[in-house]
Amino acid sequence: MAAVNRVFAAQLSGLPVFGPDGESIGRVRDLVAGLRLDTQPPRILGVVVELTTRRRVFVPMLRVTAIEPSAVTLATGSVNMRQFNQRPNEVLVLGQLLDAHATLAGSDTRVTVVDAGMEPTRTRDWVLAKLAIRERRIGLGRRRSAMQVLAWSEVAGLSLTDITGQQQGAGQLLMLFDTMRSVDVAATIRDLPLKRRHEVADAMDDERLADVLEELPDDDQKELLSYLAEERAADILEAMSPDDAADLLAELAPAEQSRLLELMEPEESAPVRRLLAYSSDTAGGLMTPEPVVLTPDTTIAEALAHIRNAELPPALASMVFVCRPPTATPTGRFVGVVHFQRLLREPPAELVASAVDTGLAALRPNATLPEVTRYFAAYNLTCGPVVDTEDHLIGAVTVDDVLDHLLPEDWRETGLHDTTGETGEQLEAERA
Asked: Where's the CBS domain (predicted)?
């Protein structure tokens, strides 16, 4: 183990993990500690590592040979590929201990844990020796007390029962989530205890929660949506992309689906209702009704400005769709598409009408998934138009939605099988 005296948990979040030969293993997502009945610092049992396949696995602390500001190194590239599952006597340092409420030992002063520092012992173990805490003050508005770093024994009320039973805040976790992609936040939330997951959902703003919800497996989406109050659930659906909202609503009971659609604003629910009319395995069910649609008299410079929008997914930014007014789907007559590479080659003052590809075939809304797949493969596309029988553009299918339906239903939850040669039982024994 590299000679470091103390490492704070928040510093480890998201650090890359490498094997002994420099091979990339994944990223640190949490620390697992075994809480004690006495006041002695708890031992760090290991690290929760998210592999490149999105699977989260447990790596015993004894397998960690170096902790540096920019990376964590393991003694072996072999890891137990079994999905991490928290045991009853364990606590997730980032997921459960941060933001926990406690008191200073021997007093009634209430504090909140904002970070935890682990230190090595002579036996090569790591323990949570220090806690960064902030005093909880009522009625001071935005004023915050100074942060202190205290020994574990100086803070009371952090037994396993205390931590899992209390209503925690989520401020510290949300700060960590700010640096993570939505898909990584979704993977983190899935591993949190149900109660903690709900606390995080309560603390997130609607836009962020909508982005995260889109990345969760179907069962987790339904569970989280059912936990939310109906009014907020409708707001979250409005913030989601219409195709993702339609996919989620399609999984609900008809009565619940109708109720949530009624609570949504009419202009937000209208495109979702249209998508629900199509089978999920057709172009109409796969498409998004919000591609970049421009009129023929739009300049190349304006078209480039549209696809520069940072919130536009890369697949949708790969082409713009040229239509007669109106430009909201269903549009006026569909003219054709302009690929973004063509936009880069044309003078900015030229009109998109001069660069339109009118020869690209369009998908019909009833095209089946195999037909859509062959279409993307044949034309080497990442996005394609969906046009009705009257030549109105009604949406666009993107390659990520096609892959989502081609992969196994549990693709968000599973990763590659263990091919390292070392058995999961051997590695798991180090956790005992």
From this structure: 287-354, 356-414
